[in-house]
UniProtKB/TrEMBL annotation:
GO terms for molecular function: alpha-galactosidase activity. GO terms for biological process: carbohydrate catabolic process. Residues 627-703 form the Glycosyl hydrolase family 36 C-terminal domain. Pfam families: Glyco_hydro_36C, Glyco_hydro_36N, Melibiase. InterPro entries: Aldolase_TIM (IPR013785), Alpga-gal_N_sf (IPR038417), Alpha-glycosidase_related (IPR050985), GH (IPR017853), Glyco_hydro_27/36_CS (IPR000111), Glyco_hydro_36 (IPR002252), Glyco_hydro_36_C (IPR031705), Glyco_hydro_36_N (IPR031704). Keywords: Glycosidase, Hydrolase. Belongs to the glycosyl hydrolase. Its EC number is 3.2.1.22. This is Alpha-galactosidase. Residues 30-259 form the Glycosyl hydrolase family 36 N-terminal domain. The active site is at D457, D526. CDD domains: GH36. The keyword Cell membrane does not apply.
Amino acid sequence: MPVISFAPHTGVWLLSTPRTSYALRIDETGAPCHLGWGPRLTLEEAQELAAPPAPPASSFEGRSPVGEELPVDGGARYGAPSLQVRFADGTRAFEWRPTGHRVDESVPGSAELVLEFSDTHYGLGVYLHYRVHDNTDVIERWTVLRNTGDTTVTLPRADSAAWTLPAREDYRVSHVTGQWSAESRLRREPVPYGETTFTSRRGITSHHANPWVMLDAGEATEDHGEVWSAALAWSGSWRVTVQRTPDGRACFTGGAGQDGTALPLGPGEEFTTPLLAGLYSDGGFGAASRAWHAYTLAHVLPHPDEVRPVLYNSWEATGFDVDEAGQMALAARAAALGVELYVMDDGWFGARRNADAGLGDWTPSADRFPDGLTPLVKEVHRLGMRFGLWVEPEMVNPDSDLYRAHPDWVLHFPHRTRTELRGQLVLNLARRDVADWAYGWLTRLVGEHAIDFLKWDMNRAFSEAGWPGRADGADLLGTAYVRNLYDIVDRLRADHPGLRVESCSGGGGRVDLGILSRTDQAWTSDNTDAWDRLSIQHGYGQVYPARTMAAWVTDVPNQLTARSVPLRFRFHVAMAGVLGIGGDLTRWSEEELSEAAELVAEYKRVRPLVQHGVAHRPRGPVDDGPSAVQYTAADRAEALLLVWQRGPRHGSPRVPLRLAGLDPDARYRDARTGAVHSARVLTDYGILPALPEGDWASTAVHLVRVP
C-alpha cells in the first residue's frame, strides 16, 4: 500500500511510493515547505531533513525563492510565484493560515493527503492535494482554491503545484520543442540562472512545446542517474517555469493559463487546477520514461488493456475527393491487407470540397453519399473492419451554413478583425449553448451510423480569444473551453461505450495527460516521412507510451518531404507504435500489397509487445548510425527489437546493441532465424542485428524465451 505518515511533534509529512519518498512540513509562518524528494526514507529519517531554514544571505534577500510547496506572491518573496491573488480592495499578497488536513485511504491501492489553508484575513481557502498509488512512483498533485468571502477574488496565476529539487552543483533540463510536422524534438540543455518558462499561449497544448520537463544534475544517461520530472494533465494554454537560484537550488512550477489573463473567482466559487504529476527516478531517462508509460497505462487511459487495431485512413489517398464508391474500393483493399479499422477522413460532409468551406455543417454530402453514410458503414463492417470517421467539432468555415446562422458563436472581440487560419475560425466551446450543439450532433452521428471510432481533429490555434457579452469572458475563456471540451468527450463516450477516440490537432498539437485520460490514442504528427518520424517518435516516447502513438505507412515520394524510403523501412518505423496505413492502395502494385500484408501480419504477432510491453531505447536517432527501440513483455517471455539505419558510412565501427529487461538466466530464440542467444550475452555484450545492405536498412528481431 502507498503510505502517508505524519510526525506531530515535528510536523513532518511523508508520502511513500514503492521506491521513493516525498517529505514536507508546515513551517513556523504557516507555509507548506518542501523537505525532500528522492529515494525511500522512513518517517524517522525524513525528520532529519526538517532543519531550521538558513538565514538570508544578506539584508537584500528575502525568503528563499525555492523550497515552498506552492510559492505565493506575498511578503519578501522574489521568486517565480505559483499563486498570485488580487483581492477586491487591491491587496495582492497571500498569507498562509493552516486550518487542517485530511487523509483519504478509501480507494484501494491509493492514498490522498489534503492540506487545508486559508488566508489570514480574506475569504480564500487553498487546499493542496497529494495522491500516491501502490503501483507507481508518480505522485499526483493539484490545488483547489475556494472563495469563501463575499467579493470576487482574481487569480492572475494559479498553478497546480511546485516541485523543489535537492541542491546539486549543476542542473540540466530535458524538454521537447518543434512546430507543425516537426513535433517532439528532444532537447537537453543546462538550466540557466534565473527563470526559464516553457509555455503555450495558443489555447491548445501546441506543436511547439509539450507540458512536461525532466531535470537532472547534468550527468544522467539513458540508463543511469537521478531524474526529477513532471507532466501536466491539461489541453489548453499552459506554462511551466524552471528556476535556478544563485545559491545553487532549482525548482519548477506549472499549471494552466498564460500571462495576460486573470481568472475571476466569485463568492462561493472554486477552481480546481489540473493535475501536475511528478516522478523521481534513479535509473536515468530510460527508467523515467518507463515509469511514465506504466503510469499512463495504469491511471490515465480509459481502456488501457485493449489492443489497438491496425488502422487505414483515407486522407492521403483521396484528399477532399471523397465519395461512396471510392471509399468502398479503398476499404476492400484495406481489408485484404488485414486492416481492422477503416477511417474516412475529411471531405464527407456539407459543401466540403476544399479547406475553405463546409466546416460546421456535419451532414453527409448528398451528391457524394446519396443514401447517407449507412451503406459505407455497413460495407466496412461486412468486410470485418470497424468504421471510423474524421471530425473537427471545434471549427467553422465562414463559408458554412452554421456560421451564417451563428456568427456570434466564434471566438472574437468587438471591432476587431476575425483572423482566419486555414480558412477557419474557432467556435467558442466555453459557451454552454455551443458545447451542447457540438455534443448533440456528435452523439446523433455516432448513434445513427454505428460509428466505432472518431478521429477528433483541431487544426488551428486561438486568436481574438474573446467572449463578447461577458466582461470577464476573455479571462474565463481558456479554462471553460477546455472543461467543456472534456465534458463533451465524456458525455459522448458515456452514451456510446464502444466508441474509441483519437486525439489530433494538426498532428501532435494536442497530446497531454489530460486529453489522453479520455481518448485512446493520439495522432503523433502530420509528417509521415519515416526518417523524420524516428526523431518525432523518440521525443514523444520520453513520456507517452507506444500504446498511444499512432503511426502510418504512407506513399513515396512523401507528400511533405519528397523523400523515398522502402516500404519495409516505413513499416518498421510505424510498427514502433499503433500501426496505421495511409497510402493510396489503388496505386500500390501487387508486390507492394503482398509485402504489406505480410508486414501487417508480422505486426499483429508482436503487437502486444509494442502496445503493452516495457520500452527500452538501446540507441536513439542521434546520428547516421543505427537507431533502435526494444519492447519486452512484462513476464520477459518475449522481446522485440526494431532497428533502422539510413545508410552506412564506410569505415564506421559497428557497435553491438545491448538489450535490457530480459530474464538474465534465460535463452532467447530469434523467431525468424532460429538462432538462440543467451540473455546475459544480449544484455552485457549485445547483438549485431543483421541489416540488409545499402541505404534505408531496417529489421525487426522477435526474441522468444526458450522453455
